[in-house]
Amino acid sequence: MNKRHFLGSTALAGLLPVAGGAGAADAPRKGPGLLTISGAVGKSNRGPVDPLLDQLMVKHKVSFDKAFVVDADALARLPAVKIKPTLEYDAKVHTLSGPLLTSVLESVGVAPDAMLGMRAVDGYVVPLKMADARTYRMIVATEMDGMPLVLGGLGPQWGIYEADTLAAFKDKPLKERFALCPWGLYSIEVSRT
User: Fold this and answer.
1) Angle at alpha carbon of residue 90, lines to 124 and 165, rounded to 5°
2) Whether pLDDT at 116 is above 60
3) Looking at the domain that runs over 9-192, which CATH code has it been given?
4) Which residues form the signal peptide (predicted)?
């Protein structure tokens, strides 16, 4: 299992990118930005990383000229999928729900052959092909057992799949099934393969 560490509250400033600046007018947000998708995206609603306001991204060496920032309303507008994996943290089955990761990415113009760098608030980065995200039916979970995921816990988003039913993971020890599942997901860097 990958070790995680706690980030102090000063890291929150980087989770709320500011709309505005050059190239940041395609789709206005209603609420705080929850997920920043950068790189090879077809749509954008924000400009480059701001060294003052995007502190977490700067610390994680995330860099882009434009990106698309997704808020809670945008995630809620996409069809939700429910999965019921046995989680490594308590070895119990939990119900997680949220849109398919591929649906989120396709909504901002990410190509089917893209490579993803999914980044969590603690700096953990998962490289994943868009094709694998589709095969695994990975979701951007926003709720667990009917309650919203929270920052400081496993949220506000968790990229996760139903490991119990996937041939690639179901026979692995529980602690090894979720290495591709970043909790605290806040940034996805997209590149073409």
Assistant:
1) 80
2) yes
3) 3.90.420.10
4) 1-24
